[in-house]
Amino acid sequence: MKILIVEDEAKISEYLRQGLSEAGFAVEVSRNGLDGHHLAMTQHYDLIILDVMLPDVGGWTILKSLRDAGRDIPVLFLTARDSIEDRVKGLELGADDYLVKPFAFAELLARVRTLLRRGVTKAAEPVLNALDLELDLMSRRVTRAGRRIAITAREFALLELLMRHHDEVLPRSLIASQVWDMNFDSDTNVIDVAIRRLRAKIDDAFEPKLIRTVRGMGYMLDTSGEG
Ligand code: CA
């Protein structure tokens, strides 16, 4: 497990480097924002510990660049300012957790371990969500509002496609090729029948309705809550 620390204060960065190395992590330290930004964007790390107040490129800029580039590596930020605004801003920009200086090393280590564990779990057990509908790709389990819904393999594939492209209109031809592996034949109503069965399971007993028919175009999983 490799951790990048971006922290300009020598005392803190050295304290972190030493502690995390002793805890068994491979640690790289950047003492300025410019190098930290470059490393974060180009190298692989399992976690980044990011100081907010850096003299050149600030922590928020680094965090924003990472998230804008779609890099979803866990980020724990350190802030000296014990202000609510700072914490809200960091979390809004996509940080996973924060610590207010000064902090105990044991506390930092506990946060680091939790974030790393969460990252692993996320990759191993992907779950798709749309409002209160949940699709667990590993256990093949579907629930809505916490209630288990029995579903066939074909319906599961259809629902997975709709959920992966929620709020996009999916033409019947696309659904046919992705779920049935066949070319769309306008004489067959297999898709409409499958959608009707799926609706009976995930929509009939619930509000709002998620599956929407877009006349003349196809179907859409609507997460606006207006269905
Ligand atoms: Ca600093």
Account of the protein in words:
The protein is an alpha/beta fold. It has 2 domains: 2-118, Rossmann fold (3-Layer(aba) Sandwich), CATH 3.40.50.2300; 127-221, Winged helix-like DNA-binding domain superfamily/Winged helix DNA-binding domain (Arc Repressor Mutant, subunit A, Orthogonal Bundle), CATH 1.10.10. The chain has helices at 10-22, 33-42, 59-68, 84-92, 105-124, 153-164, 172-180, 190-202; strands at 2-6, 26-30, 47-51, 75-79, 97-100, 127-130, 133-136, 141-144, 147-149, 170-171, 211-214, 218-221. The protein has a 5-stranded parallel β-sheet with strand order 2-1-3-4-5, sandwiched between helices. Strand 3 (47-51), helix 3 and strand 4 form a beta-alpha-beta unit. The mean pLDDT is 89. Bound molecules: calcium ion.
Task: Provide the fold topology.
Layout: E1 2-6, H1 10-22, E2 26-30, H2 33-42, E3 47-51, H3 59-68, E4 75-79, H4 84-92, E5 97-100, H5 105-124, E6 127-130, E7 133-136, E8 141-144, E9 147-149, H6 153-164, E10 170-171, H7 172-180, H8 190-202, E11 211-214, E12 218-221
Helix pairs in contact: 2-3, 6-7, 6-8
The chain binds calcium ion.
